[in-house]
Amino acid sequence: MTAAGAPHARRRLQLAAAILALLVGAAVLGPLLYAVDPNVLDFARATVPPGAGHPLGTDENGRDVLARLLVGGRISLATGASAMLLAVFVGTLTGTLAALGGHRLDALLMRLTDAALAVPTIFIAITVLTFFGPSVPTLVVTIGATSWMGLARLVRGELLALRQQSFVEGAIALGAPPIERAMRHLLPHLWPTILVNATLGMGSALLTESALSFLGLGVQPPAASWGNMLSGSQTSLFTAPWLAVFPGAMILLAVVSINLLGDALRDALHPAE
Amino acid sequence: MAGFLLRRLGHALLVLLVVCTVTFGIVHAAPGGPSLLADPKLSIADRAAIEQRLGIDRPILVQYGRWLARLARGDLGNSFLYQTSTVSTIMERLPNTLLLAGAALLLTVAVAVPVAAWCAERPGGLLDRLAGALALGAISVPVFWLGILAILAFAVYAHILPAGGASDVGGSDSIVDRLRHLVLPALVLAAAGTAELFRYTRASALAQRARPFVRTARAKGVPERGVRWRHAMRNACIPVVTVIGLQLPRLVGGAAITETVFSWPGMGRLGIEAALARDYPLIMGITLLVSVGVLLASFLVDLAYVALDPRLRPRA
Amino acid sequence: MSRRRRWPAAGALSHRSIVAAAAWLLAAACGGGEPRSAVEQAAAAGGTLRIPLINDPIFDPVIAPDLGSILPNKLIFPGLVRPDEALRPTPDLAESWTISDDGLHATFTLRPGVLWHDGAPFSAEDVKFTFDAILDLASGSRLRSDFAAVQRVVIEDSLTVRFDFHAPFAPFLTLLGYNAGILPKHLLQGAPLTEATDFNRRKPVGTGPFMVTEVAPGASVTLVRNPHYYGSVPKLDRVVFKVVPDLNAQVAQLRAGELDLVTLEPANLASVQGVPGVEVLQVPVVQHFYVGLNVRRPAFRSPDVRRALGMAINRPAIIDGVLRGYADLPRGTIPVVLKDYFADALPPIPYAPDSSLVLLARAGWRRGADGRLRDAAGAPFAFELLLDKGNPTREQSALAVQQDLGRIGVTVTLRTMEFAALVRDRVLPGTFDATLIWWTTPPDPDQFAFYHTGQDNNNVGWSNPVADSLLALGRATLDVPRRQAIYRAFQRLEMEDPPVMVLFYPREIQAVTSRLVGFPSLGIRDALRHSERFALRTK
After folding, report:
1. Dihedral sign, Cα of residue C374, residue C375, residue C379, residue C382
2. CA–CA separation, C457 vs B40, rounded Å?
3. CA of A26 to nearest chain B CA: how many angstroms apart?
4. CB crowding C100-121: b at 16 or more within 10 Å, else e
């Protein structure tokens, strides 16, 4: 990136980090500060518009939307982050081993990746989630285990390309052991790829949770997540639009800021300079 | 090259076997069994008769053996739900999914690559920022939500496009009518992929511009156009090809949601229905078909790598 | 996804109107004898009625298990009788019938001159063929348990058919008018019904007022008026069933003017109220939604405990809050829509948490300092409530039950499961504490299969010897006043020893275009038996 881009990148980084910190902070501390039970039903006060008493209104069961957004944020962000970490770990490991572990291992791992990539994951996810029941841990594993393949192939592709380059050949000539070669000379060059992928991965994990909620396989009620709140709001679209606006805004805000953060990090860490 | 192709074919068959075995295992291990059996009003005798008729009273290995044996004869068995051949059930839906996914992919490449190339030339420009913001939005919004908003805006309130289906029922089955039904689902399905391809393409085009060989080319006096296209974009194409290859399975997965939202009579929705109803033959059939498609795509992607970067040529 | 799931029709269902449409009743009373000019006038109006399905249908009423198939099959395949607006069986393919004094034989005289959609004549052979298939365990029949009392079907002549029974069977006529559409022998004999793919999926042939002309898989089924229909000439030109698996998408399409008749969950109600051109109707249906307490569990063995838990649940709040008022308060297990049998003299189960605690104390459960109920050994009263996932009405009802029982110190843990897994792995083997589930039944009070000791469908394991004899007597008694007395006694008994905790009797919510006329005040399944009367007002 050009020098002129640096302050701009820093500003974006700061903005995204601030939004994300706010969301995480709200999710972690919010339920402690805003002591309203997110699960208590009160049909007499169902679908109350935002206002005094219920700052963000109530849902069709008379539950406080703000309280559910805060608690749901915990679940959604934790699910998304864990799934992303799992996917990044598996993806990077597989890609690196495939590229550097020799011809045979490469073939084996790439066939596995091909197989995982070839299976229509949504149908498998449906089956697995109905098998183990849609809880947060099974969601994390399901989302993580179905989203590492892209990164694995990207990492492998880049490593294979990098390996041919002069500085690596130099390191090989100097007799550096493969692991050290990988850690010192190659992995740093992968940071942009991994970061971009991880940010997109975190974002898409949040989106996958909401898509699974749409299919009835996300975090199960009465527990709240942004995904199941958004999915549940569909029935009241015409009559209580705030039920859709708030969780939708939270997902959008979270995913946008996560992606901005990734972009800014990528710009800041860009190895080309 | 022939050896390379043969080896790839062998790999593909191996991958398919893994896919089938694992899928068969997962699907049959799931509790509940086919939803045909979930009618609480069936008597024990009725239930046993159904299990026997469907052949699911046998041990799982026997069932798998029979499934493989039939597969070898090109027979995927009968769908439990539709009580008709799995192959014909899928084939009835496949054209609609190909139409939708094809339109979305076309849209993705046609929009993302040129816009990204343009933006990479003028980073920080107005179009770059606008496209960046749109792309950011598009990858940050749940697909089903986008679909519902599109239906609300264009069908329920504006009344300019249909809310669902692939054609007007019983109406004029014209091209115009089909296109009108295609617009919203294709746009919604293409949104995230376009944004993602745009971001990758732009990022790698920018990265390539800073690479030594591009600088060298520039220093050698190669005209800027030549630098841009021959050197920079050519290398930037590798991740582009990778991302397009990754889009394919995602188009099917995303299509399943989009098809549900728009009541599109495609294979993705059929797959969701089959998975929820535990229609073993249908799930296996769709999984197999999608896997073949994806393997084919990944093979083409590898060929494209080779074409784009001679260093990746197979050591045969 | 409330919506997008292929449900087996859990039993059967039927409904009745609250407000009878006088004009329609008049038409029903006249039978087929409407003045010719009126028929021609209405037929000229024509038009297309569009109704959603959640999945592609199987055009065979004998083997199709799901609602998506049942609805179109009602138009294509009439039965020997059909329910009128009071849900009483009236002639359809049968002109008349007699039942022997011992109740062991029913003889039907068939309507002459009826033609199949392909022009072949309809006869007693078809009736016998259909019921032989229904009774054949290997045929894939989903109606076998309905007609298990039938011993054999005998053709007396080409238009007379006799049913012989193992024992007198009172629900028989009701069941005939329910899902038992008659199949064409000349097209289906010789091969298993489940393998008649072309018939089942593309080219069904029935005798009904509408016939299938076009099937677009995954998208729609188009039916056109049958010009040779034996009843009054169908008024609509076409009925189109559109496959729209998502309930919210159905609502959106209704609002966009792409659908004409949608049945709704209470949660969707607000989305269609006040929409110009859309009317919201309600009809009670023959369903009871309940929390089944597993009587095999020691905690639930005592009738007093089950009664007490029932009194701790605020049913009016659930009906108002969750069902938006579209449900009725339960008494026993017989829905209010079965007017002849529903014990309206019984008071509804009261919401009385204090009395509930008294009853529970008598059964040995006392509230500890922490407010939780504990037995003599100090073990808390806690159980797991299973429910199928994806349906907001049931999820919210379960939440309300959890909250209400929590108030008296009973800890309820909710667990949502996929419906098939819930039924096969927990409900059928009896490995559950409690489950929120429902029965949908034909419009008959017979509940022998659900609550008689040792029956396959008695999932909660309830056993009461008096109830056993009442249930056995009720299904064998053809005399209506005597049957009424039997089922009233059964409901009184259920108040003392509840087999299950019934939460509500739902009403079906129908959102229809206000142009639709001639639609009887019945649940959609029974209303579709009268499709020849439907018409769309122009403009």
Report:
1. negative
2. 7
3. 20
4. eeebbebbbbbbeebebbeeee
Distance from CA of A214 to the nearest CA of C (A): 6
Start-to-end C-alpha separation, chain A: 7
Query: Which B-chain residues 240-279 have CB contacts (< 8 A) with chain C?
Result: 260-263, 265-266, 269-270, 272-273, 276-278
Looking at chain A, which subunits does it touch, using at least 3 CB pairs closer than 8 Å as the criterion?
Answer: B, C
Identify the closest residue of chain C to A211 by CA–CA distance: C1
CA distance C250 to C232: 31
Nearest to B169 among C7, C8, C240 (CB): C240
Q: Are A27 and A247 in contact (CB under 8 A)?
A: no
The reported pTM is 0.84
Looking at residue C36, its pLDDT comes to 41
Chains with 3 or more CB pairs closer than 8 angstroms to B? A, C
Report the gap between the CA of C220 and the closest CA in chain B (Å). 7
Do C132 and C193 touch, CB atoms closer than 8 A?
Answer: no
Report the percentage of chain A scoring pLDDT > 70.
85
Give residues with Cβ within 8 angstroms of C317, minimum separation 6. A43, C351, C400
Report yes or no: C394 and C506 within 8 Å, Cβ to Cβ: no
CA A264 to the chain's CA centroid: 17
* 3 state SS of C100: coil
ipTM over 0.85: no
How many contacts, defined by CB atoms under 8 Å, are there between A and B?
171
Cβ burial C23-51 (10 Å sphere, 16+ → b, else e): ebbebbeeeeebeeeebeebbeeebbbbb
Query: Which of C32, C186, C75 has its CA nearest to residue C122?
Result: C186
CA distance B295 to chain A (A): 6
Mean pLDDT value across residues C465-482? 93
